[in-house]
Amino acid sequence: MQSPEASTAVSPTQIQLTLLALADEVVGTLAHLVAYVGALALFAILALAALGQLPDLRGDGPADRPGWSIADRSHPAFAVSRIDSSEKTASYIIFRHPEGGRRDVLRWTDMADKPVAELEIYRQGAEFDVTRPAAAGLAARMGLSADAPLEQAGLIDSKFGPVVLFRPVGATEGTRACLGYLKRYEEPALQISGFSCQGDSLPARRAAIACTLNRLTLLASGNEPRLAELFAHAELRRRGCDPQGSPDWLLGAANAQLRGAL
pTM for the complete prediction? Predict the structure, then answer.
């Protein structure tokens, strides 16, 4: 007959099996915990990456348009001469499209880094859509909603000839609304556009735009002789800047009837 001590005795083999089972359970729990923490870290990284892309998703620049990307290795082809040494240097970004398009974008900000002016020189490639409205996307670049309507606000003269102005619908002479502008050429296939919020009055903002365009110069034309010819002819019409207001306001917003190429 087996004694009670013998019936309750635990063999070393059983102890080892129990310890092994416990170790497996601990390892499995740790593996699940590591996988869970790793998944949380991955979601956090993706969330931060998405937040970092939010400024591009607002439509502030051409990088958000299909096919466009920043060309870090391209060299600036244009410059805007500075009036005085206290003027804050503009940022210069170049975008390229696989089908040949190039956009040189200069932006100016105030002391709080808020955009106050922009100038874009768009050399069109095969990606250019002739059915797209000339001022499409200008409202978003001006800090408005992408579908905000714009109306013509007259024409100003510059060394590039007449340039059409745009402003938000309903803006009056005394408001501080920014002014957009656009000039398009068929030969060479070129579009100059942008906006300005500089100046305390509408005449001052017109003058700021005219001054920016008159100070725009070509640094390198690459293999585009027509572009070099365009800027050479424009330089012959170059004038100084009038900070008090542009005397070359050609048409008012009420009677601006624009047809053909801008």
Answer: 0.69
